[in-house]
């Protein structure tokens, strides 16, 4: 019995000692400094969009933001509200914030040199989105992803040529531009004019600006109807679908049948534009592809990783017209 009692005491003693040792080990482990996990700082992109004047512009914005999220880039998004002054302030705020890259959709072509020179001095690459700037100011940008405005104008002209192939008399045309001094308005008009050059039948008799907005499109055509007889106009070439929808709204309240009495050619190919084409109110709608996001983010990746890249990238555009047989299957994202 005395032996059992001794062994029991011996076991209890070691149990207590083992418990104390375990506590000491746990306490010492807790006292050790925690090792910091190695993390890669997030890439931050400053994105100044020129505005939200149309469903096309909204889709373009979403394309950039979605692609940035896929690339795990953080975006400081700013809406320029169709103001160059506002966009210049936004670019300066990006420079102060030391972003890794700036994406700019410029409202107009000129007037960017000072702020873009500041970005270049700060070592921040600037990528243009959708629109371009004047040639003498491009030395301050790194690259750009553009819609092909000149090509869109040429595609519109190609449809007009086909539509009026058997027409012998003059073809009197009205052009409704978007923003004054914007690269897309200038490019679309340039491509359209160049493609029709040499054929004296085609005459642009009036040019107006509608700021790419539905309300302005309606306002412009309403005012134009007070100045000239629209029954003498053969073609209206509208530089985007939103302005075209405003034009259609006015014309459908008159005796003039859009798509029949006047040939309507538009640009964008939004869902509402395609729907109007199906109804025969628009004769052709030239796509302006808003999906710049993936190319912009790929370009930023090349630039930041010091890989080779091109000075300019362009998106491809389709043509939808009354000559197509499969319009019923066309579905747009915007």
CATH class of the largest domain: Alpha Beta
Terminal-residue CA separation: 92 Å
- General form: elongated
Query: What strand line-up does the widest sheet have?
Result: 2-1-3-4-5-11
Q: Considering DSSP H and I runs of 4 or more, what fraction of the residues is helical?
A: 40-55%
Our estimate of the beta-strand percent is 15-25%
The residue-averaged pLDDT reads 90
Spans of at least 5 consecutive residues whose pLDDT stays below 50 are 1-15, 17-31
CATH-defined superfamily of the largest domain: Response regulator
Spell the H/E element sequence.
Answer: HEHEHEHEEHEHEHEHEHEHEE
The assigned CATH architecture of the largest domain is 3-Layer(aba) Sandwich
Largest sheet: 6 strands, parallel
How many beta strands in the DSSP annotation?
A: 12
Reported by name, the CATH topology of the largest domain is Rossmann fold
Tell me the radius of gyration: 31 Å
Q: How many structural units, i.e. domains?
A: 2
By secondary-structure content and strand pairing, the structural class works out as alpha/beta
Number of distinct helices? 10
């Amino acid at each position: 019995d005395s032996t059992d009692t001794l062994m029991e005491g011996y076991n209890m003693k070691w149990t207590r000692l083992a418990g104390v040792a375990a506590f000491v080990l746990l306490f010492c482990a807790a006292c050790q400094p925690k090792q910091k996990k190695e993390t890669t700082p997030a890439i931050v992109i400053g994105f100044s969009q020129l505005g939200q004047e149309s469903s096309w512009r909204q889709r373009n914005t979403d394309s950039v933001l979605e692609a940035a999220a896929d690339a795990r880039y953080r975006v400081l998004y700013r809406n320029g509200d169709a103001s160059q002054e506002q966009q210049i302030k936004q670019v300066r705020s990006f420079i102060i914030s030391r972003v890794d890259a700036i994406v700019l959709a410029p409202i107009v072509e000129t007037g960017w040199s000072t702020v873009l020179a500041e970005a270049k001095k700060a070592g921040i690459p600037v990528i243009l989105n959708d629109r371009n700037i004047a040639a003498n100011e491009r030395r301050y940008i790194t690259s750009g992803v553009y819609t092909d405005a000149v090509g869109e104008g040429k595609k519109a002209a190609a449809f007009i040529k086909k539509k009026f192939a058997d027409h012998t008399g003059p073809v009197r045309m009205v052009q409704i531009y978007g923003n004054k001094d914007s690269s897309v308005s200038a490019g679309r008009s340039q491509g359209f004019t160049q493609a029709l050059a040499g054929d004296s039948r085609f005459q642009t008799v009036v040019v107006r600006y509608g700021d790419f907005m539905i309300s302005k499109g309606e306002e412009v055509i309403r005012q134009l109807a007070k100045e000239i007889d629209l029954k003498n106009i053969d073609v209206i070439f509208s530089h985007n679908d939103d302005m075209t929808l405003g034009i259609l709204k006015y014309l459908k309240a008159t005796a003039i049948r859009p798509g029949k009495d006047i040939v309507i050619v538009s640009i964008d190919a939004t869902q509402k534009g395609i729907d109007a084409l199906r109804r025969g109110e628009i004769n052709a709608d030239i796509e302006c592809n808003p999906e710049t996001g993936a190319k912009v983010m790929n370009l930023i990746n090349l630039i930041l990783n010091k890989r080779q890249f091109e000075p300019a990238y362009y998106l491809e555009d389709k043509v939808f017209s009354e000559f197509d047989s499969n319009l019923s299957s066309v579905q747009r994202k915007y």
